[in-house]
Amino acid sequence: MKNFNSDVEAADALKNTYQELSKEIGKVIVGQEETVKLLLTAIFCQGHCLLVGVPGLAKTLLVQTIASALDLDFNRIQFTPDLMPSDIVGSETLDNNRNFKFVKGPVFANIILADEINRTPPKTQSALLESMQEYSVTVAGERHQLSKPFFVLATQNPIEQEGTYPLPEAQLDRFMFMVNLDYPSFEQEMDIVKSTTSNVKTVVNKILGAEDIILFQDLVRKVPVADNVVEYAVRLVHKTRPNIEGASEESKKFLEWGAGPRASQNLVLAAKCHALINGKYSPDIEDVKAVAFPVLRHRIVRNFKAEAEGMSTEEIIKKLM
After folding, report:
1. Which tens digits make up the pLDDT trace of 66-106?
2. Which of 145, 123, 156 is nearest to 51 (CA)?
3. Using CA of residue 263, residue 268, residue 273, residue 278, what is the dihedral sign?
4. Burial class (CB in 10 A: 0-12, 13-18, 19+), 199
């Protein structure tokens, strides 16, 4: 664990560490710089991420590569229709002496890759709720603490809807960011094909350990924020609520439900980290705008009019900003 003489020194170290991590991840992942930035921001903010993209965009590889660059325990859970809650959190079994013994499930790790989380029924999806919010699981009335840091990085395929179970709003709200992955550019796809069809094996070095991550998480929360920045974040979230007094015309016209207070908290927290990794010691309104899309896109619900007119969530957020 590194020792720093001041918070300013720690802030500089966070910026340098972020650049090192991005470089290591870039050995394997071609492009996707913004996605990598958001995932690392979520980690430094003690948040969870939902990655949405069509098959073949290296969602799973991206999470595995980040886990490789961090000296943390990593488990992958492949969500399927027959997966049970006990397959995730663990269960009590009888040992040789006929005593009940708790056998830990794969959720007992620092980084959890919840692969295709919408493939499993809500009963199993909800098994992650307590761990994501409380950093613990309860089995047979007994509470078991998870080791920190703890992150859930879930993936979702937006194309196939047959046999899938959309995440309920309460669980979507637990994710700090929803990150949409786009197709790579022509040049990036050329590089991907060249690197993945050869026999060259890339080694990703471990940059950061658990204690250092916890230290940086504490540092992010210490970052001072001006009142006008907090006011902008809260006002932006209030604009998404069509049913309150003073709601914006866009939300009244295109939204059925707006974002809750967790959106305001995540906007400010993510803006703090965004400022630090860009060499600033306090966030401004531009930092809030930089993280607004991934924080808000899964927390607002469009109405029929918005869908009929082809108004995307991103366009609505842009109008609100």
Report:
1. 888 888 888 888 888 888 888 888 877 777 777 777 778 88
2. 156
3. positive
4. exposed
251 within 8 A of 258, measured Cβ to Cβ: yes
42, 48, 52, 55 alpha-carbon torsion, rounded to 10°: 100
pTM more than 0.90: no
Backbone angles phi, psi at 151, to 5 degrees: -135, 140
Q: Of 159, 72, 143, 82, which Cα lies nearest the Cα of 113?
A: 72
Per the listing, tokens 């069809």 go with 197
Alpha-carbon span 289 to 233, nearest angstrom: 9
pLDDT in tens, 249-285: 777 888 888 888 888 999 999 999 999 888 888 888 8
Q: Can you give the three-state secondary structure of the chain, one letter per residue?
A: CCCCCCHHHHHHHHHHHHHHHHHHHHCCCCCCHHHHHHHHHHHHCCCCEEEECCCCCCHHHHHHHHHHHEECCEEEEECCCCCCHHHHHEEEEECCCCCEEEEECCCCCCEEEEECHHHCCHHHHCHHHHHHHHCEEEECCEEEECCCCCEEEEEECCCCCCCCCCCCHHHHCCCCEEEECCCCCHHHHHHHHHHHCCCCCCCCCCCEEHHHHHHHHHHHHHCCCCHHHHHHHHHHHHHCCCCCCCCCHHHHHHEEECCCHHHHHHHHHHHHHHHHHCCCCCCCHHHHHHHHHHHHCCCCEECHHHHHCCCCHHHHHHHHC
Q: Which of 36-40, 48-52, 135-139, 159-163 is predicted with the least confidence, judged by mean pLDDT?
A: 159-163
CB 132 within 8 A of CB 152: yes
Task: Take residue 276 and report the two structure tokens written for it.
Answer: 């630090």
